[in-house]
Design a protein that fits this description.
The protein is an all-alpha fold. The protein contains 7 helices and 2 strands; from the N terminus they run E-E-H-H-H-H-H-H-H. Helix 6 packs antiparallel against helix 7. The relative contact order is 0.12. One of its GO terms (cellular component) is plasma membrane.
């Protein structure tokens, strides 16, 4: 658990403290910038392999998340923020299985919380911009509900729509990365113990834990991609709900 609270490396005692996880986050952001700069600096009508990979990633977010849920007009309008969220979550998740980094940039609450707040603010902005003066009213008091029932419905809508959404977005991403890291540490620590400390016949257990560690590493790659997709997809869903005509 101490790996989630590493020692300060730079600027100790200031608001700009940098520890190992912060460095990993910087590395992930630099990797995003570098990959997209290299993939788009010399665009060709007939793309080369690297440009094709970058375009496939961008098209995935545009087609399967933005335009699929929001339509072409609103999809393109909110595409930059959905693309940023998707690739930021993806790259910071993948640092958890990269040698020498070995911990996800999203495994400490800061980044998941910031992204959840961005998603939440975008949802509020979309609703207020589309339905000024009616967004909050219709969110808390859905049309067609008998007035006495609003005593029950309004508090439920307030909590579920304006309180739980950013909390669940944060915790879903955070806890998946924390649990994944702990599982990998468990398997590879057990492998080290059985192979180099226990010795003898216990080495056979080390082979098993190593195999499980490898399998869960592959599973972590799947989880990293899935969590990036789910986070950006839910953001698009919330925006869609804010833009819906019933508001």
């Amino acid at each position: 658990m101490n790996e989630f609270f590493p020692d300060v490396l730079l600027f100790a005692g200031s608001p700009f403290e940098i520890n190992r996880i912060m460095l990993i986050r910087f590395i992930a952001v630099l990797a995003i910038v570098l990959i997209f700069w290299l993939g788009t600096r010399k665009m060709r009508i007939v793309p080369r392999r690297f440009q094709s990979l970058v375009e496939m990633g961008l098209d995935f977010v545009r087609v399967n998340i933005a335009e699929d849920l929001l339509g072409k007009k609103d999809g393109r309008r909110f595409l930059p923020i959905l693309t940023t969220i998707f690739f930021m979550v993806l790259f910071m998740n993948l640092t958890g299985i990269i040698p020498l980094l070995n911990i996800a940039g999203t495994s400490v609450i800061g980044v998941p919380l910031v992204l959840a707040v961005v998603s939440y603010v975008t949802f509020i902005y979309a609703g207020v911009r589309k339905h000024p003066g009616a967004f909050f009213k219709n969110s808390l008091f859905p049309p067609g509900v008998p007035k006495p029932i609003y005593i029950i419905v309004a508090p439920i809508e307030l909590v579920s729509t304006f309180v739980l959404r950013p909390i669940t977005l944060t915790l879903r991403l955070l806890m998946n990365m924390v649990v994944g890291h702990l599982l990998l540490v468990l398997f590879f620590s057990a492998t080290s113990f059985f192979l180099f400390t226990a010795g003898g016949w216990f080495s056979l257990f080390g082979i098993g834990t190593l195999a499980f560690g490898f399998v869960f590493t592959l599973f972590e790659i799947l989880v990293a991609v899935l969590q990036a997709y789910v986070f950006s997809l839910l953001t698009a869903v919330y925006i869609q709900l804010a833009l819906a005509e019933e508001h």
